[in-house]
């Protein structure tokens, strides 16, 4: 099993590319205007595969945080490429849905009858169906945006918790360092006091020694003087 820091990213990227290839095959396949149900089924599968691909991109984004700094730039580029491909295929899915909706409206079974939507300027079954389809599309897009916002909020909350944990750890380290410095200052102050006392005692002992030498010298002078006189 590969335990390198980029192994998971590479695995997610490979799965993402496989999903994208499957999406491209389904989007490029065109069963024909008469087989609208097959096209709808293909688009539903494309939507599920794109959701799975979106999850793969999110996992790739998370894995980039654990990649060493020297290698991270290249993997960020690959991540941006994957995000751009995902956005492009989502737009292609929206366009394919719009084509299916138009084909459904223009088909005889779609409620259009013998006239096209442009023949019904004052509203009717066709315009009502078009508004219903448009409203459904808007609701689906809004639901997806809410899901993406919720996912982003969860990721932001997780990152915020990690940042707070790191800040707390750094604060504890700083407090420990400060306590260590305070203890070192106290030790230095004590050592300085001890040295001052030792120097003071040395000077005192030196003064006493000089005094004794002076007294002895005077005694010797006095004794010599008495003997000579």
Automatic annotation (TrEMBL):
GO CC list: cytosol; endoplasmic reticulum membrane; ER to Golgi transport vesicle membrane; Golgi apparatus; late endosome membrane; SNARE complex
Entry keywords, A to Z: Coiled coil, Membrane, Protein transport, Transmembrane, Transmembrane helix, Transport
A Pfam family annotated for this UniProt entry: V-SNARE_C
Record domain T-SNARE coiled-coil homology: where: 131-198
Spans through the membrane: 207-225
Localization: Membrane
GO MF annotation: an example: SNARE binding
Membrane topology: Single-pass type IV membrane protein
GO annotation, biological process: Golgi to vacuole transport; intra-Golgi vesicle-mediated transport; intracellular protein transport; macroautophagy; retrograde transport, endosome to Golgi; vesicle fusion with Golgi apparatus
Keyword Transmembrane helix: yes
Residue ranges of coiled coil: 33-99
InterPro entries documented for this protein: SNARE, T_SNARE_dom, v-SNARE_N_sf, Vesicle_trsprt_v-SNARE_N
Family: Belongs to the VTI1 family.
Name by which UniProt lists this protein: t-SNARE coiled-coil homology domain-containing protein
């Amino acid at each position: 099993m590969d335990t390198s820091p980029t192994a998971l990213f590479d695995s997610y990227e490979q799965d993402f590319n496989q999903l994208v290839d499957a999406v491209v095959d389904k989007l490029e396949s065109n069963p024909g205007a008469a087989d609208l149900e097959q096209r709808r089924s293909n688009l539903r599968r494309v939507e599920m595969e794109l959701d799975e691909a979106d999850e793969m991109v999110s996992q790739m984004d998370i894995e980039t945080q654990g990649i060493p700094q020297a290698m991270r730039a290249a993997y960020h580029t690959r991540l941006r490429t994957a995000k751009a491909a995902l956005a492009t295929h989502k737009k292609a899915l929206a366009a394919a849905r719009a084509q299916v909706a138009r084909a459904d409206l223009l088909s005889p079974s779609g409620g259009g009858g013998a006239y096209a939507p442009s023949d019904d300027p004052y509203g009717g079954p066709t315009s009502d169906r078009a508004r219903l389809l448009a409203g459904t599309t808007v609701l689906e897009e809004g639901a997806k945006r809410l899901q993406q916002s919720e996912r982003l909020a969860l990721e932001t909350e997780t990152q915020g918790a990690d940042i707070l944990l790191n800040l707390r750890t750094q604060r504890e380290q700083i407090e420990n360092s400060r306590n260590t410095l305070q203890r070192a200052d106290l030790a230095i102050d004590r050592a300085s006091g001890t040295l001052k006392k030792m120097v003071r005692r040395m000077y005192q002992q030196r003064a006493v020694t000089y005094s004794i030498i002076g007294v002895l010298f005077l005694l010797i002078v006095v004794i010599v003087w008495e003997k000579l006189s």
